[in-house]
């Protein structure tokens, strides 16, 4: 991968001899995350050149995008480029904006785990809230210096911002955040609105409800469950420790949601949109569907562990996405049961591969993630 190098990865900006001038250029922060990987595939398919900002890690953190990576030495084929930066480092953000000169910016980077945000609130605010502000400010000064007024900005907002406000939640529902993560997303939301109103930036907030996939991080509840189902079915695990099973979420498929992000940036005027399936299920309902799909009873395996309860919970989220459906023409393609089955099926295959390694003595049968 380009990120393997100790020097900065190669750039394919507009001044690059191999770049096609008419091709649109997108810049994605958080490209190594769940949504970043699906959005990259989506934009490459649409003919974009995609630049992603990645942060330095002592382990490679690019496993979700390795399958679409082409070595930059094949410059005419490599349309995804990676660059080191960090949302806590304003100078890196400004520098890459100037070099890459993107048409569209998708700010997906975040410390995105709600429970973890109670443990590291200061860092969460720095990346999620002030990080968004740094990127907006870098964009404002990039536009002032370059005269490129047509750059479009997407901010990854969250249904967590509604928090304690009862459903259905739409663009006009008041925010009542219940965690440092959610409060930081509210700040990022209003920074984005403010830069739109104050400086005329083309900047949109997507208020996305929970979206999952086989690429979901393993410590979010859906993937934690489907990973466990796969491992229990294959005989690598017996118990699954969980917290509050009565919380209800509006769960969709990440592949559908990245399309809505792109659609927002194709409108004549910038605006904010709720993106949701409009169906809500409890964690317990997810358990029933996931264990049931492989003929298991969740009650035989799940143990409630207080450590997974949060200091303040968000009880019930269910979106009203009528604006996105009407204005953008967006609607979800994957329903709840289809999503659960997709995730369980993939995690059964993953567990089978793990079992081969365990049986051959190359891996310990680890406990649940
Ligand atoms: P992930 O946690 O899977 O990905 C987060 C990404 O942000 C990763 O690429 C991560 O890098 C990167 N990142 C974290 N900290 C920094 C930093 N300091 N500087 C630069 N990059 C950083 O999240 P998702 O893909 O699920 O979500 C994408 C965005 O959408 C997030 O902002 C999230 O808060 C928001 N959101 C998500 C929803 C969901 O249900 N998935 C719903 C609503 C909003 P690394 O790989 O190195 O960790
Ligand atoms: P959420 O997702 O907090 O909605 O944030 P998560 O999957 O972490 O929790 C959903 C619900 O499940 C309950 N729960 C557990 N959660 C986890 N992680 N682990 C457990 O063991 C467990 N047991 C029960 C939680 O209490 C909660 O009620 C996600 C993230 O992607 C955010 O970045 C995003 O903004 C929102 O979705 C929309």
From TrEMBL:
Pfam assignment, any one: GDP_Man_Dehyd
MF annotations from Gene Ontology: GDP-mannose 4,6-dehydratase activity
Assigned keywords, A-Z: Lyase, NADP
Biological process annotations from GO: 'de novo' GDP-L-fucose biosynthetic process
Record PANTHER family: GDP-MANNOSE 4,6 DEHYDRATASE, GDP-MANNOSE 4,6-DEHYDRATASE
Role according to the record: Catalyzes the conversion of GDP-D-mannose to GDP-4-dehydro-6-deoxy-D-mannose.
Protein name: GDP-mannose 4,6-dehydratase
High-level lineage: Eukaryota, Viridiplantae, Streptophyta, Embryophyta, Tracheophyta
């Amino acid at each position: 991968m380009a990120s393997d190098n100790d020097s900065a990865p190669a750039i394919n900006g507009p001044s690059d001899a191999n770049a096609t001038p008419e091709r649109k250029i997108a810049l994605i922060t958080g490209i190594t995350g769940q949504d970043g990987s699906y959005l990259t595939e989506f934009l490459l398919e649409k003919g974009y050149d995609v630049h992603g900002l990645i942060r330095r890690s002592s382990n490679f953190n690019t496993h979700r995008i390795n399958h679409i990576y082409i070595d930059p030495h094949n410059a005419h084929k490599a349309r995804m480029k990676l660059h080191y930066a960090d949302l806590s480092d304003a100078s890196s953000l400004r520098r890459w904006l100037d070099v890459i000169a993107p048409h569209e910016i998708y700010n997906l980077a975040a410390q995105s785990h709600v429970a973890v945000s109670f443990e590291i609130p200061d860092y969460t605010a720095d990346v999620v809230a002030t990080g968004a502000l740094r990127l907006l400010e870098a964009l404002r000064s990039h536009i002032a210096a370059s005269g490129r007024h047509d750059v479009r900005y997407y901010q990854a907002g969250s249904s967590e911002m509604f928090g304690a406000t009862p459903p259905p939640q739409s663009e006009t529902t008041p925010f009542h955040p219940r965690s440092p993560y959610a409060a930081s997303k509210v700040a990022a939301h209003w920074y984005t609105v403010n830069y739109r109103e104050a400086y005329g930036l083309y900047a949109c907030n997507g208020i996305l409800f929970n979206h999952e996939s086989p690429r979901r991080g393993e410590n979010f509840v859906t993937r934690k469950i489907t990973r466990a189902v796969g491992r229990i079915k294959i005989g690598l695990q017996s118990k699954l420790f969980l917290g509050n099973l009565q919380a209800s979420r509006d769960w969709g498929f990440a592949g559908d949601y990245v399309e809505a992000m792109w659609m927002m940036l194709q409108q004549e005027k910038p605006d904010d949109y709720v993106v949701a399936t409009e169906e809500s299920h409890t964690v317990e309902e997810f358990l029933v569907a996931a264990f049931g799909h492989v003929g298991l009873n969740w009650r035989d395996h799940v143990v409630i562990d207080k450590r997974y309860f949060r200091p303040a919970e968000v009880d019930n989220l269910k979106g009203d996405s009528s604006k996105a459906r009407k204005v953008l023409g967006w609607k979800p393609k994957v329903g709840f049961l289809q999503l659960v089955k997709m995730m369980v099926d993939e995690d059964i295959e993953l567990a089978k591969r793990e079992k081969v390694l365990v049986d051959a003595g190359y891996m310990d049968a680890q406990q649940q993630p």
